[in-house]
Design goal:
Elements lengths: L1 H18 L7 H22 L3 H5 L2 E5 L7 H12 L2 H4 L8 H6 L1 E5 L4
Antiparallel strand pairs: 1-2
Helix pairs in contact: 1-2, 2-4
Length: 112
């Protein structure tokens, strides 16, 4: 959750830089925040196996076999996180629905 909060705050900051004249809480800033969040998390998870917040907390997102997710899995996983509900419904292993849908798991960096 802490990594998600960091990513959301970064996305909000970037959205405010881009559309700050519209005012915090405006539809324009809210959509920009969601868009920046989606792009940031998707691209960084695809390229580095971790979003900005996950890197800070030394977490990685990998497939169940330990390999990187790839672009389409990263995009689908992030899209499901943006819907919120899949991210808060977890299984007995602590994996959210977004991880189960794409066959991924979150691990500590260096734990592979």
């Amino acid at each position: 959750m802490a990594a998600l909060l960091v990513d959301w705050l970064v996305a909000t900051g970037i959205a405010m830089l881009l559309y700050g004249s519209a005012g915090y809480g405006s539809n324009q800033v809210a959509l920009a925040t969601l868009g920046v969040f989606f792009l940031e998390v998707t691209v960084l998870t695809w390229l580095l196996s971790a979003s900005f917040g996950q890197r800070i907390l030394r977490l990685r997102v990998v497939r169940m076999d330990g390999r990187p997710l790839g672009l389409w899995r990263s995009a689908l996983r992030t899209g499901l996180i943006c819907l919120v509900i899949p991210a808060v419904v977890i299984d007995g292993q602590g994996r959210g629905l977004q991880d189960r849908a794409v066959g991924s798991m979150v691990i500590r960096a260096g734990a592979d």
